[in-house]
Write a structure and sequence with these properties.
It is a single chain. The protein contains eight helices and four strands. The protein is α+β, with helices and mostly antiparallel strands. It has two domains: 5-104, Peroxidase, domain 1 (Orthogonal Bundle), CATH 1.10.520.20; 108-179, no CATH class. Strands 2-1-3-4 form a four-stranded mixed β-sheet. Strand 3 (153-158) and strand 4 form a beta hairpin. Helix 1 packs across helix 6 (91-105) and helix 2 packs antiparallel against helix 6 (91-105). The protein is elongated, with a radius of gyration of 21 Å. It starts with a helix and ends with a helix. InterPro entries: ATP_synth_OSCP/delta_N_sf, ATPase_OSCP/d_CS, ATPase_OSCP/dsu.
Amino acid sequence: MKLNKHTVATRYAKAYYNLAEEHDCIKEAFDNMMDIRQIFGENPGLGLVLSDARLTLAQKRPIVDNLIKNFPELMQNFVLMIFDYDRMGDMELIVDEFEKLYDHKNRTILAKVTTAVPLTEAQKTRLADVFVKKLDGKKVIFDEVVDPEILGGVIIEAEHQIFDGSIRLNLETLKKQIAK
């Protein structure tokens, strides 16, 4: 049975997280993963090149060696294992899954916040304080979206839940009640 990319990425991310935990270097492992994300982000197609069947391992290996030369041994070994199993094309997905795991373990909540106008810093702080308590987290990281169609209020999507406090929803609800 062939596994999909998401399942594979999740397994590699968990394995590296557990290994970093054993070596008591979770924060360093997270920082290294973010560095890998940056490298792949600055070099679009790197994963495809490193998993291209038209290139030999001997042609790809110097690229990988250069990629990992400044990382600690644990990260070097992890990247080499990904390379050996021909999964470099999945590296960015592995990093994403590692970040999700790291955030979950550290009770960091990633939330999409939709408002009609941009939030001020004071509003973001108040919203984060309330939301972190509501979801029993330590920290909230907002991905902000401005959508004038919600008219006002705020819609927050986090941890498979939607908290809709938009004026648009309130008006729609009121309209339905009047129609009854």
